[in-house]
Amino acid sequence: MKRIFYALVLAAGVACVALQAWAQAPGHGMPDPLAMLQRIQAKLNLNTSQQQQWDAAVAQSKSAHQAMRANFQQLKAATQAELAKPEPDLAAVAAVADQVQQQNIALRQQARATWLALYGTFSPEQKATVRDAINARLTRMEALRQHMRDRQPAN
User: Fold this and answer.
1) 135 vs 137: CA distance, rounded Å
2) How far is CA 2 from CA 21, 69, 79, in A?
3) How far is 12 from 4, CA to CA, in rounded Å?
4) pLDDT digits over 77-112, tens only?
5) Structural domain range at position 81
6) How many domains does the chain have?
7) How many other C-beta atoms are found inside a 10 Å radius of the C-beta of residue 96?
8) CB-CB contact of 54 with 118 (8 Å)
9) Predicted confidence band at 35 (pLDDT cuts at 50, 70, 90)?
């Protein structure tokens, strides 16, 4: 995502194509963090208070995701509008991109704070469950990266 943003700022014309493809299928092929969390939820044995915090964190994460998608649609529309002009103002596109990035950073930080507040209420056993799930996910991701590297032809 950051690569697309920086590419847009540096070369708006080239990045516009990538941004359009990305906006049509955001997260395509990427793992869903909420799905991972929901898989371990039963293992956590949440108490009533933790369950309420969990539900609030899920709702906030989903809301933030929807808002970020809307922000990127705004960026896509602004980019298309500028590129339709005979002399596009790439500085204006960069300004919109900066604004979208700042908004999305704030949304991510708010959602993260909610999850971290919940994590702060966890017992050592619950924290161990989270740790183990994160380690398992990192191991799977590394195996996937290695698999992709192995499939690349040698130069």
Assistant:
1) 5
2) 15, 14, 16
3) 10
4) 999 999 999 999 999 999 999 999 999 999 999 999
5) 2-151
6) 1
7) 20
8) yes
9) confident
